[in-house]
Amino acid sequence: MRSPTMPSAILTERSSNMSTKPMSTRKMWWIALISGMASYIDAAAMTSSGTALVLLKDTLALTPEMIGVLSSALTFSVAIGALFGGRLGDLLGRKSVFIATMVMIAAGSAMLVFVEVFPGLLAGMILVGLGAGADLPVSLATISEMAKAGLRSSMIGFTHFLWKIGSMVALGIATIVGSMGQLGAQILFGHILVVTLLTLVARFAVPESTLWLEQREAEKAGATSRSDAALGWTTLKTLLKAPFAKYFIVLAIFYTLMNLGSNTVGQYGAYMYTEVAGSSVQVYSTVKLITMFLGAILVLLFMRVVGTRWRMTWFVGGAICTITAMCVPLFLGVTEGTLNVMMFLWLIGTVFAGEGIMKIWTQESFPTLLRSSAQGAIIAIARFGSSALVLVTPVVLATGPGALFGFLTGSCLVAVVLAFVVFSRQRTTVIDQEEADAAAAQDAAVDAAPVRVQG
């Protein structure tokens, strides 16, 4: 797969206007942290909202229907935000979008902290969801385009580590403030507000993606009119054309099917422990905390191996764990013991064969001016799919949990086999090819430049 080669004239101009000093590894990791905070905030918002709404239930007289609307609004807003935010990131640039998204999240979080009426809470949930969803694909594109090839996979994997930390911190705060009523809810949302404001300030120092600037200028130079500039590499329809359609469709199917299991375990874990297995919330909470801590450690291992030739070996191991996880309650019944085994196996499996590897494959498989759009569309499709399953999960569990776990087992099997068939054969990546083409064109431009003779 090859990307458009940049005209040498543009590269010569870019090289004369930009510093040639390479970015230090330390600065790369700092930018990865600041950009990756989108994952932290997304996880913290999702984890905090459930507890916070329960704490607000009596104080603000929220009915079950209102709580359902608020929870759904957050989920759907994340999906919509990812779809449109990713596209805007490709059209307008990375920095402008991920500054605007932090402002949206800060405004929404402030409303959730201080507003005490349902319409205000709904508006706050929508703003937080739209901002978090829009930020995710843009922040990932920023990291992948800033990082050098040897660190790119690890840095994208680092965002998954931040997601785990965000969820753990929010769960820890919820444990402490769980008996404080409205004040507890305000502390939960206030945590998101403070982290968002700190991230916003730090992001002003993050430079625009050089690769995006170069590709955008090359596209403009090759366009003869404004209508031409809207065609080709910047057209969203390109995702459904060769050579990118294969990767887009497979990644959308893979992440959607795997996310069905993750969403079920995450949102209905407590329900399955208490209502189906006859266990308790305390047991579920303990198991969840242990698995989350273990997951954060395993993500550090994932960061070390995902950029090596052993990537697919670890993926296969993770895939086996995810399928086995759903098979345990399917064949042995839903008990406290089988759910414990399922939680641990699912945790291990999804670290190496879940969202983390999806993010890396997406960043590698699409050109700069489509990268953020592709990531956003894939996230949106998966979130919409999960929302649909969430609506019927309680009914399916009531009629017979075997049907649910049979469906999830089949979903995992299809997802991992499809991903393995496509990505085990991938030998080159688009982003590496873009960088190689740009470097070659720049070298050619330098060689062709007239030599100034000192007299």
UniProtKB/TrEMBL annotation:
- Primary localisation category: membrane
Keyword set for this entry?
A: Membrane, Transmembrane, Transmembrane helix
- According to its record, how does it sit in the membrane? Multi-pass membrane protein
Q: Give the record's GO CC terms.
A: plasma membrane
Q: Which Pfam families match?
A: MFS_1
Look up the domain of life of the source.
Answer: Bacteria
Subcellular location per the Swiss-Prot or TrEMBL entry: Cell membrane
Which SUPFAM superfamilies is this protein grouped with?
MFS general substrate transporter (SSF103473)
Q: Residue limits of the Major facilitator superfamily (MFS) profile domain?
A: 28-427
The answer to keyword Transmembrane helix applying to this record is yes
Region entry Disordered: which residue ranges?
1-20
Gene Ontology MF annotations = carboxylic acid transmembrane transporter activity
The keyword Phosphoprotein appears for this protein: no
The record ties this protein, via InterPro entries, to: MFS, MFS_dom, MFS_trans_sf
Entries under Gene3D superfamilies matching the protein: MFS general substrate transporter like domains
Q: Where are the transmembrane segments?
A: 67-85, 97-115, 121-140, 161-181, 187-206, 244-261, 281-302, 314-335, 341-362, 374-397, 403-423
Q: What is this protein called?
A: MFS transporter
